[in-house]
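Illustration 12: Acyltransferase.
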Amino acid sequence: MSKRFATFLDMSLWISAMTALVYHVRFLMFVDYETVQARSWLDQAFYFLSGLGHEAFAVFFVVNGIFAGLFLRRMPAPQGDRALLGRWWRSHLALLPVLALGGLLDLAGAHFLNGSGLYSDFPAFSTVTLSWSAFLGNLFMLQPALAPTFGSNGMLYLYAYLWWSCCLLVLLRRAWRSHAPSDAASGAALLLALALWMPSTFWPWLTVWLLGVAVGLRGPWPRPLLHPLAAWALLAAAIVFSRLAGARTDLLPAPWGTWLMLWKYVLVGIGFAAVASVLHHRPMAPAAAGAAPSLLARLNRQLADGASVAFLFHFPLMMLLTALGADLFGHRLMQQPGPLCYALVGAIVALCYGASIALVRCIGVRQLA
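Figure caption equivalent — predicted structure in token form:
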């Protein structure tokens, strides 16, 4: 993997995680765009960029898939499949403290900082389910179909989507290689179980993840598959279309409008995978060895290391910090945008991401795959 491609993946990880964080904080702190009074250019730009939360999830899924593909490419097929599942599962076990800590933050907020009703009266933000059944269900990746997401952490359903995508890929790869009836039956059984069990939202995210796997597994290419400008234009067009389409199911006749809203993030995944494939090509000359990374390179790496935990941990901490501001300092939820609101959004984002990086150092987990 070239240094440029590695830098690109690192930057994509933390920028996507940061965008998702800002996206969620905005929903708590700011009113909806339609009710903003006297919209300035700053307000319009902020609402547009901070609305790219689900597009950021698509980028994260593609990057996660690329890492999985690169991991499989480096090892012989049978050992690589088992090693990928083992590495993913070890990451999951290391994230157990994150799950428990998120529950403790929710318990503290719901019992001591619920004067604003954030934990009880705003199910549109997050439904707080703090029970042992929800905890164990999330521990065994049974959310969202058989168990609610644990606590306020609505992002945990994406974690389950990644895990089952990885399991499905490994079983189908084994069935393809061996042609043994047992392997084929195992892959078909899991595929059928997921079809009956998972909600319809699983399949677009599986597709996005597999796009990343294809880039990591099939590259690097001797020369770019697309012209770089064409790849970047495709990504930009997909992002703008996805953002402007919003949740409008009336763009196409039923039921196609609903399907478009469900699958539009695959377009973002295709655009990002195209850019990644352009950058993932064989370097013209080997990189110089022994050079110490620059300060910016080390910062980029640290921010990327915290991205996975930031995706999975920021919601409980974000809820607690927002409730703290509302109860102790009287800062109401969902206000008109202004300098104080922008400053508070920046402070909450910085605290949540900083806490995620600190957790990475404590529990020793970086990438999920």
